[in-house]
TrEMBL record:
<keyword id="KW-0032">Aminotransferase</keyword>
<dbReference type="InterPro" id="IPR015422">
    <property type="entry name" value="PyrdxlP-dep_Trfase_small"/>
</dbReference>
<comment type="similarity">
    <text>Belongs to the class-III pyridoxal-phosphate-dependent aminotransferase family.</text>
</comment>
<protein>
    <recommendedName>
        <fullName>Aminotransferase</fullName>
    </recommendedName>
</protein>
<dbReference type="GO" id="GO:0005829">
    <property type="term" value="C:cytosol"/>
</dbReference>
<dbReference type="GO" id="GO:0030170">
    <property type="term" value="F:pyridoxal phosphate binding"/>
</dbReference>
<dbReference type="Pfam" id="PF00202">
    <property type="entry name" value="Aminotran_3"/>
</dbReference>
<dbReference type="InterPro" id="IPR015421">
    <property type="entry name" value="PyrdxlP-dep_Trfase_major"/>
</dbReference>
<dbReference type="InterPro" id="IPR015424">
    <property type="entry name" value="PyrdxlP-dep_Trfase"/>
</dbReference>
<keyword id="KW-0663">Pyridoxal phosphate</keyword>
<keyword id="KW-0808">Transferase</keyword>
<dbReference type="InterPro" id="IPR049704">
    <property type="entry name" value="Aminotrans_3_PPA_site"/>
</dbReference>
<dbReference type="GO" id="GO:0008483">
    <property type="term" value="F:transaminase activity"/>
</dbReference>
<dbReference type="InterPro" id="IPR005814">
    <property type="entry name" value="Aminotrans_3"/>
</dbReference>
Length: 450
């Protein structure tokens, strides 16, 4: 009966898109993508686009890696599913856990697999709650995160997310979640004074903990570089200072490396750059490079042992999901890790980051650009109406929407945040020429909008 309707009509009528206005979508319709190879995407109308955002900061190895498809197919033929419940398991999940323990900062020895980032954060909140109960500190139920942070949209994690959109109309009470200011150098009165920015964050965390009562605070969550908040890059040394402060205050330190993991900022994990080991770490996206869904929660021995010792041996710890440690996702994860390491993609990302930096620097003098910033292959271009005062464009201009649309016309995809911040996260497999192409197309887009 519906056979003559176009895909776009069906999409408009039936598919609810994540983080998208229902009515806006009915009005504009979808941009349906059809295929991809390396850095390049093709849409259903045959347009070729260079992807400067790796899908949604996830396709770090680029599109069309045949060896990943083969790893998935081979695992599906051999054993498409094995539960992790009741002591069952599968070889790929075990091997992937081992590799994550080996690759991550020393001391993160235990891995719980999830389906993505939101439920990795949700699992962290639940296990932390269990941990504090188990070690006899049941009053530790308050969580602190950063303004402008994004930690997914599960019912618990959405509260740690401090972006207004994720709360408008979703007002389930989350009174146990609190925020301190984002270390945002460009928009700080302390711009240029890294030590003072770090000291202020440390003081704000101490003040917040004092206000809530140290005995009541469970953990502090942060992204090493805030992604969805507009690629906010804190000064070098910030992460280490926050780790040390959490240790002093006896609260758990959780890094959400869903975006920054797997070479996005240079090293395998952003924590490594500052020699920091968190108590827990959340991962997703680059773990399977977006080819199939998977996330992970890494846990230190301290947290694991606390939970283990506090529970009666024969009583199950009631947290789980049917697809935790899914063998096909794990097989894909193993092949993706092989591509990063033996396949040389992590090293290529580190090499081409120099070209990425040059591209950002080349746009700094553009009349619309107030700030460019980045680390590794994670970057942002912040547009302003006035460079001197850093005034933002009038929201009524809907510049972010126009930017995205113009960029699409110019054959480049990036993220255009509401504050007119262009987010960039190209795949780590990019060549120098492709990196230059990305920046040429962005420059043209900005010129077109002048
Ligand atoms: N944490 C961070 C830092 C993220 O950037 C995201 C997603 O962008 C999430 C958690 C949620 O991950 P997912 O969308 O896989 O649920």
């Amino acid at each position: 009966m519906h056979s003559n309707r176009s895909l776009l009509d069906i999409d408009r009528d039936h598919l609810i898109h994540p983080v998208t206005s229902f009515r806006g979508h009915e009005a504009h319709g979808a941009l349906l993508l059809e295929s991809g190879k390396g850095m390049w995407l093709k849409d259903v109308e045959g347009r070729e686009l260079i992807d400067a955002f790796a899908g949604l900061w996830c396709v770090n190895v680029g599109y069309g890696q045949d060896s990943i498809a083969e790893a998935a197919a081979e695992q599906m033929r051999r054993l498409p599913y094995a539960t992790g419940y009741f002591h069952f398991g599968s070889e790929p999940a075990v091997k992937l856990a081992q590799q994550l323990v080996d690759l991550s900062p020393e001391g993160l020895d235990h891995v719980y697999f999830t389906l993505g980032g939101s439920d990795a954060v949700d699992s962290a909140i639940r296990y932390i709650t269990h941990y504090h109960n188990a070690i006899g500190k049941p009053e530790k139920k308050q969580f602190i995160a950063l303004e402008r942070g994004y930690h997914g949209s599960s019912s618990t994690g959405a509260g740690l997310t401090a972006l207004a959109n994720f709360h408008r109309g979703f007002d389930l009470p989350l009174r146990w979640q609190h925020h301190i200011a984002s270390p945002y150098p460009y928009r700080s009165d302390l711009e240029g004074d890294d030590a003072a920015i770090i000291a202020r964050s440390v003081q704000e965390l101490k003040d917040k903990v004092a206000q809530l009562g140290a005995d009541n605070v469970a953990a502090f969550f942060c992204e090493p570089i805030q992604g969805s908040g507009g690629v906010i890059v804190p000064p070098v040394g910030w992460l280490k200072a926050m780790r040390e402060t959490c240790t002093q205050l006896d609260i758990l330190f959780v890094t959400d490396e869903v975006i920054t993991g797997f070479g996005r900022t240079g090293p395998m994990f952003a924590c490594e750059a500052e020699g920091v080991t968190p108590d827990l770490m959340t991962l997703a996206k680059g773990l399977t490079a977006g080819y199939v869904p998977m996330g992970a929660l890494l846990m230190s021995g301290k947290v694991y042992e606390g939970i283990a010792n506090g529970a009666a041996p024969e009583v199950a710890i009631g947290h789980g999901a049917t697809y935790s440690g899914h063998p096909v996702s794990a097989a894909v994860g193993l092949e993706v890790l092989r591509l990063y390491t033996d396949g040389g993609i992590l090293a290529n990302g580190q090499r081409v980051a120099t070209r990425f930096d040059a591209g950002l620097a080349g746009l700094a003098n553009h009349p619309m650009v107030g700030d460019t910033r980045g680390r590794g292959l994670l970057g942002a271009i912040e547009l302003v109406a006035d460079k001197g005062s850093k005034a933002r464009f009038d929201p009524g201009l809907k510049l972010a929407d126009r930017l995205f649309a113009k960029a699409y016309d110019n054959g480049v995809i990036f993220r255009a945040f509401a504050d007119n911040i262009i987010g960039l996260a190209p795949a780590l497999c990019a060549s120098d020429g492709e990196m230059d192409e990305i920046f040429a197309r962005i420059a043209k887009t900005l010129d077109d909008l002048l």
